Amino acid sequence: MKDLKRQLRKELLAAGATAAEAKELQPIAAKLSLLKGRNAAAGNRPKTNRWRAIVKPAVFVASGLVLGMFVIITSQAALPGSWLYPAQKFSDSVAISIHPQYRANVMMKRAQQVNQLVAQHASSERVLATLADYTAEASAYKDTPHANYAAFEYCKTNLRQAASAAPPDVRQAISISLQSLENT
Fold this sequence. Notes:
Layout: H1 2-14, H2 19-41, H3 45-75, H4 85-98, H5 103-119, H6 124-142, H7 149-165, H8 168-182
């Protein structure tokens, strides 16, 4: 160790350091040479870093996908007004763009949500907003060549049940929506 210190002092003085600077720099230089020796001894370190560079992003992406799928799955049971409802609407729109026949399921889900909101005495604004979502889905579904009569009957049943328990302003809006369905 003493030989190493002497050698470092000689090199520092040869590099132009004063005696006082060499004395201050000697412990730092000794640590640097020790670090250099450690890095050389750990010859497989770059491989580990490459492995981590691949695994870390993959784990991050996979966990993000799992979390996203969890949110989408749990959002399917959410009612309008829930913080998960926007995720439900987004996933429904993506599913419809991939598989247009899924619109019937979304239409039936919105009719059922109207019925559930009325049964839970939700605010008229929330019920009417959900009814508007339902009406938009129903009118888009009506225009498809593969429209299903049974899907419309399911919706009519849910809306009739909702109308029987709804306040007057909601009942009137549901009646208008039902009349538009009667033409199918």
